[in-house]
Write a structure and sequence with these properties.
It is a single chain. The chain is about 30% helix and about 15% strand. By secondary structure, it is an alpha/beta fold. Among the domains are: about 120 residues, 3-Layer(aba) Sandwich (Cobalt-precorrin-4 Transmethylase, domain 1); about 90 residues, Methyltransferase, Cobalt-precorrin-4 Transmethylase, Domain 2 (2-Layer Sandwich). It has ten helices and nine strands.
């Protein structure tokens, strides 16, 4: 329709670009301002956008003014290799350009993307990259540890012989080791690292990178385990790594029995077990006033037996 503005991002595709390609685009790890203009252009001009989680990528595209128009597809799960093959077959057949993004950071780094690159190269499809934020490199440069030589281990195996074997292999590592870990498994991993490398080995724990509450805790493995075990996350703030909320160390648990504490909190004139509408007519100043007598017999017969609490005032609701 005349007068309506066109798409925010649009450009003609030169003939030499009309070929299938896979483009890996880095996305922000917490701060939307870290998305580069080149990344926005790649997302806007792509024919297909393969996302780790479409529920997270769609708000990102909306925030930067990039319409999806049915281009957004899900790309994750145990069948990643099969999905990668299908996507490569599609872009080869239709001469499309596919952009691969994850929830945060660079695709292929502890996130989907590696199998897509392998499938694209096997089919002779060009692979490009639009660099972006990386949680591993951000944590490394903020750690204060040597950055000249380092090794990235991603996520350690959760348990069993594989985890023990990986820790044993890293025991003699003299380079800085960068690891990822889920919040609820941080304490166990710190304890395992302290047991394998010694409690005096320097460590830095980074969380909420590029966000408002970004925190980098620095110390030794032994100190990190003690800080996390006492309910304080490395960084001095309340622990957000544990799935179970712990009471603050400065707050003592009340020792008064539960029923006695509840009795003190009852409003005046109200008794345990009384419904709100039964207590509706009670006055706040009538805490010690005698309880009204029940209605005469013959009227609402058996009402006293139906009262939930002995001595509670009769219900005024019609039956």
């Amino acid at each position: 329709m005349a007068g309506e503005p066109g798409p925010r991002y649009s450009r003609p595709v030169p003939p030499d670009e009309a070929r299938p390609a896979v483009i890996l685009v880095g996305t922000p790890i917490g701060n939307l301002g870290d998305l580069s203009p080149r990344a926005v252009e790649a997302l806007a001009t792509a024919d297909v956008i393969a996302a780790e989680d479409t529920r997270r990528t769609r708000p990102l595209l909306t925030a930067v003014g990039v319409p999806t128009r049915g281009r957004l597809v899900s790309f994750h799960g145990p069948h990643e290799a099969e999905l990668a093959g299908r996507l490569v077959e599609r872009i080869v057949e239709r001469k499309e350009r596919l952009v691969c993004v994850t929830d945060a950071g660079m695709p292929g780094i502890s996130d989907p993307g590696e199998r897509l690159v392998v499938a694209a190269l096997a089919a002779g499809v060009a692979v490009e990259v639009v660099p972006g934020p990386s949680a591993a490199l951000s944590a490394l440069v903020l750690s204060g540890l040597p950055t000249g030589r380092f090794v990235f281990e991603g996520f350690l195996p959760r348990k069993g012989r594989q985890r023990a074997a990986r820790l044993e292999a890293l025991r003699g590592e003299d380079r800085t080791v960068v690891l990822f870990e889920a919040p609820h498994r941080l304490l166990g991993t710190l304890a395992d690292l302290a047991g394998a490398f010694g409690g005096d080995r320097p460590v830095a724990v980074a969380r909420e990178l590029t966000k408002v509450f970004e925190t980098v805790w620095r110390g030794t493995l032994g100190e990190a385990v003690a800080a996390e075990a006492t309910g304080r996350s490395p960084g001095g703030s309340r622990s957000s790594w544990s799935g179970r909320r712990r009471p603050s160390p400065t707050t003592a648990r009340p020792t008064t029995p539960l029923r006695r504490r509840c009795r003190r909190n009852w409003p005046a004139g109200r008794r345990p077990g009384m419904r709100r509408r039964r207590w509706r007519g009670a006055s706040a100043s009538a805490a010690d006033a005698p309880i009204p007598s029940p209605p005469p017999s013959g009227e609402r017969r058996g009402h006293e037996k139906r009262a939930r609490c002995r001595g509670s005032p009769p219900c005024s609701r019609r039956r």
